[in-house]
């Protein structure tokens, strides 16, 4: 668990922007985000395969 930096904000300013203008795509994806998505996809695939194998062992049809 990350250590708390013990910082506080006295005032918070929120600025709304026009939703009609297009959002510019980033030229390069964050590699940490790519790694996280890959990790989650692998875990989901592993869980799916495991549940299918369990269903076949019990002789049940997939849900």
Unreliable sequence segments: none
Tertiary shape: elongated
Radius of gyration: 22 Å
Q: Give the % helix.
A: 40-55%
The beta-strand count equals 0
Estimate the strand proportion.
Answer: under 5%
Helix and strand content put the structural class at: mainly alpha
How is the main sheet built?
none
Number of helical segments?
A: 1
| N-end to C-end Cα span | 37 Å
Order of helices and strands: H
Task: Give the mean pLDDT.
Answer: 80
Fold blueprint:
Blueprint: H1 31-58
Keywords:
about 60 residues; mainly alpha; 1 helix; about 45% helix; elongated
Written description of the protein model:
It is built from one helix and no strands. The protein is an all-alpha fold and 63 residues long. The protein has a domain of 31 residues. The two termini are 37 Å apart.
Quick recap:
The protein has 63 residues and is mostly helical. Helices cover 44% and strands 0% of the residues.
């Amino acid at each position: 668990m990350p250590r708390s930096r013990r910082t506080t904000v006295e005032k918070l300013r929120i600025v709304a922007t026009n939703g009609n203008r297009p959002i510019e795509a980033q030229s390069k994806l964050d590699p940490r985000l790519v790694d996280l998505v890959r990790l989650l996809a692998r875990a989901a695939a592993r869980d799916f395969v495991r549940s299918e194998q369990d269903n076949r062992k019990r002789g049940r049809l997939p849900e």
